[in-house]
Amino acid sequence: MNRTTVALLAALEAVIVAAIGIGIALVPLTILWAAQYQLGADWLVVWRSAADIWLVGHGANLTVTLDAQTVATLGLPGAAKPFQVTIALLGFAVLTAGLGVRTGARAAETTFRLTGALSAIAAFAAVAVIVTLTAGSALVVPSLWQGIVLPPFVYALGIAAGFGFAASRTSRAERAAGAADGTEPALNSVVIALRERLGGIPEVVRMGAAAAMRAGSAATAAVIGVAALILALLIFGNYGTIITMYEQLQAGALGGIALTLGQLAFLPNVVIWLASWLVGPGFAIGTGSSVSPLGTELGPLPGLPLFGVIPSGGYSFGLVGVVVPLLAGFLAAVLLRSRPWVRLPGGALPLFLTALGIGIVAGIELGLLAWWSSGALGPGRLHDVGPNPWLVGGIAAAEVAVAAVIGLMAGGRARR
Q: What is the 3-state secondary structure (H, E, C) of 224-276?
């Protein structure tokens, strides 16, 4: 394929990715609109609502101004004044980034890698501009700059990850082929350029940093994976409570479907909250509330059936959950040390610094995830929802680093 074809195909894929995300919000809302108003009301209201949902799903803030009748109906303290909704429905961001990985991997397989990636990002940015400019109403106004910047940024992160996965896969295959026939692997221009840039850094620093990135990211993935498993078990175990909350809302069949889709978009947030619980600090659902291994204090909760997985008395397994990040750091370090293709710096001090780096990487990643999953869900006490990213990042870094020191030393003895 020539450069123009690669650019056009990448742009088309980006538009399709954006359309999928918007359609997930737009289709159920359109069905509700058609069923309730018999196609008689203004459909632009539905489009603006779907656009707002898509934008907040990528981290854009919404400023909400409710009329007096709605305020009286809801009875929420502080709702009479304009308030912000800053918590992201991360399901949309995960979908965009995941499809971006696919885009990046495809672009990496072509001759014009950079052209494909930039074309995809530009097309996605154009869609984000159109959506942002057509979203909003007298009641809900999205942040203009965040709506234009954040969705393409999330997509670009996915493309970069796809590039990295494709480059890693290619590099391993070339190393294996070179080892089989005794030749040096053929490196693409991107890898050569990176090696030239990094050539001035001392080798021991490069090896330690690469090992810390691998193991730290693996530890983060392990904690998130265990949190997702726990959430699945909690949903199964509290199924009756969740169904009861659905019945109390009396949303009807179509309303229940729309509510379920909204909660599916919110699932990644709850997974990250449970990961923060495993780390130790826990999370809050409203100012003054706390859900942590040390105790649970809850006020009135929003009427989302998904919140039925949060017991008022806390989780029975208590401090046992804190073992998860420790095991994640230990196993990540042991597995890293056992890989023959991973080069680690020798000596006790470099290994200790590498373990410290593993903890820092895991702490930064979990802290960023905690920050992205938290925010304001509404007025009044709902202004503070989610974990404290500084506490999550700091404690996770300490836990993983301590476990990684033990794992690297144990791995070193096993290999000797």
A: HHHHHHHHHHHHHHCHHHHHHHHHHHCCHHHHHHHHHHHHHHHHHHHHHHHHH
